[in-house]
UniProtKB/TrEMBL annotation:
It comes from Onchocerca ochengi. CDD domains: FN3. Coiled coil: none annotated. This is Fibronectin type-III domain-containing protein. InterPro entries: FN3_dom, FN3_sf, Ig-like_fold.
Length: 250
């Protein structure tokens, strides 16, 4: 038969968006034995490489991958490399190392901030994460968020209809979806600059108290540095599905 091409990982690429750092890499060749990818980081002050936040699961249909790098120090120089591993955690291929420095950047884009509550009992070895899915003006989106995060910002978001669901997951799989959140966002700015962030359910103003066919306008608050966000609280929503997801991931 035709010989299989050797697995290779291109030199990874770093992109900084505001205060967030994203790592991108592309693979080529035979990836049939790949089960996951390991990210290793090292700063100028480190003598050894350290593994970053568990493993990134391999998707057989994908050759391009992305992972957000968190908890990095500003104005520090880092090196990062990617390794492909098999079921036995054996390294099948390794990329060249890419170097980068974390800089402070002004946040200029508008966005929608999604905020949720979640207990911290999850074992990091289980590689917890959150999966955010839905539609914005009829266009589907999906975002995977690291398990230690409790918020996510949709950058360059435009006003319109939003339908959002969340699921918690780990290496064993994902739990059930949250109750869908349906809302209508506009570019209105509150005259008092108040943020919409509540822990008490008030059907007059809180979207999670309303039926799916009802819409309401969310006021966008003024950030001290002129950044504008829509603040969405899912505190009560999270409580509704905590128990079922906990049992699913136990």
């Amino acid at each position: 038969g035709t010989p299989k091409s050797l697995l290779g990982i291109d030199k990874p690429r770093i992109e900084q968006r505001g205060s967030r750092i994203f790592l991108y890499w592309t693979i080529g060749g035979d990836a049939s034995d790949v089960i996951a990818y390991q990210i290793d980081l090292r700063s100028d002050s480190d003598s050894d490489w350290r593994q970053f936040d568990g493993y990134v699961t391999h998707s057989p249909s994908e050759i391009h991958f992305r992972q957000e790098l968190t908890n990095l120090e500003t104005n520090k120089h880092y090196y990062v490399k990617i390794s492909a591993i098999d079921q036995s955690r054996r390294i099948l291929a390794m990329s060249e190392a890419t170097s980068f420095t974390v800089h402070c950047q002004g946040i200029m884009d508008e966005g929608i901030r999604l905020v949720w509550n979640w207990p911290d009992e999850e074992d990091r070895k289980c590689e917890p994460y959150f999966l955010i899915t839905g539609y914005q003006n009829g266009i589907p989106f999906a975002e995977r968020v690291a398990g230690e995060q409790r918020q996510f910002i949709f950058q360059k978001a435009v006003p319109g209809e939003w339908h959002v669901e969340m699921r918690a997951g780990n290496r064993a799989g994902t739990g059930p979806s949250s109750v869908p959140v349906n809302l209508q966002s506009t570019s209105k700015v509150s005259s008092k600059g108040l943020r919409v962030l509540r822990s008490i359910c008030d059907p007059r103003v809180d979207f999670w108290c309303r039926s799916p066919d009802e819409n309401y306008d969310i006021a966008i608050s003024h950030h001290p540095n002129e950044e504008q966000f829509i603040i969405i609280s899912l505190a009560l929503l999270a409580r509704y599905w905590l128990s079922s997801i906990d049992s699913a991931l136990a």
